[in-house]
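for the recovery benchmark. tokens below, seq after
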């Protein structure tokens, strides 16, 4: 990325039809730590890899509950993510005060999309340097949406954004057909294993650097509120996903040995 005469503001097109500040905002998302979202027929799960700026600092918050039925995961500039999350909280509260019901997911995603697009149309503003995964549940079931700084939003079956997210996306694409019929525990395991794929070989998921949020339907068919697992709460989930991964590796090793013996 480099400076040129067309990147002084977010409303000037280059001769190639590009808006460079919007592309810089997308680059900021790619520099953020990875977040993963997956959805089944009954649940939607968000997982996030937290970073700390230095050994003496705490880990940055990556998953933010917005309402009983709704939460987001952020990748990119945390300050921009905080501004958008506060806007979404106010819209969710306004829906309850005005209409007496939770705000529909499609509507709140459309509202932040319009807000982001405005920044690329008015002089003196810049695009938000953050990408969001929005997970929630409404009358039609659980959903996961991806939000980009350019104002593009789309519903996803599974998604990963942030640094080294391509490895996570490869895992999601490989197991995509399994997600729809997954139960609560299986979907969490898939989300954590996809997150683990983005790590360097000398890194591991721990209770300090991992967050997880889930929303969906309970055993009785009633909606369960958005639940955030952080710090020690995420330890049992990490242990279960690690056992699954080790079991799969042992099974593959056994199959390879049988092939050799035959």
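predicted aa per position
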């Amino acid at each position: 990325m480099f400076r040129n005469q067309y990147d002084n503001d977010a409303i000037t097109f280059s001769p190639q039809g590009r808006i460079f500040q919007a592309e810089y905002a997308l680059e900021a998302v790619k520099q953020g730590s990875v977040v993963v979202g997956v959805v089944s027929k009954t649940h939607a799960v968000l997982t996030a890899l937290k970073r700390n700026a230095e050994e003496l600092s705490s880990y940055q918050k990556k998953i933010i509950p917005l309402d009983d039925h709704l939460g987001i995961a952020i990748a990119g500039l945390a300050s921009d993510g905080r501004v958008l999350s506060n806007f979404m909280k106010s819209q969710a509260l306004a829906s309850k005060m005005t209409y007496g019901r939770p705000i529909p997911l499609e509507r709140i995603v459309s509202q932040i999309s319009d807000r982001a697009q405005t920044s690329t149309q008015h002089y003196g503003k810049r695009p938000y340097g953050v990408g969001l995964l929005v997970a929630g549940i409404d009358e039609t079931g659980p959903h996961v949406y991806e939000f980009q700084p350019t104002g593009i939003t789309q519903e996803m079956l599974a998604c990963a954004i942030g640094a080294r997210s391509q490895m996570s996306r490869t895992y999601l694409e490989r197991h995509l057909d399994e997600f729809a019929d997954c139960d609560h525990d299986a979907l969490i395991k898939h989300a954590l294993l996809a997150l683990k794929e983005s790590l360097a070989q000398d890194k591991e998921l721990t209770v300090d650097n991992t967050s997880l949020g889930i929303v969906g339907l309970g055993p009785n068919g009633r909606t369960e509120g958005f639940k955030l697992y952080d710090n020690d709460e995420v330890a049992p989930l990490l242990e279960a996903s690690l056992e699954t991964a080790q079991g799969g590796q042992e099974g593959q090793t056994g199959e390879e040995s049988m092939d050799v013996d035959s």
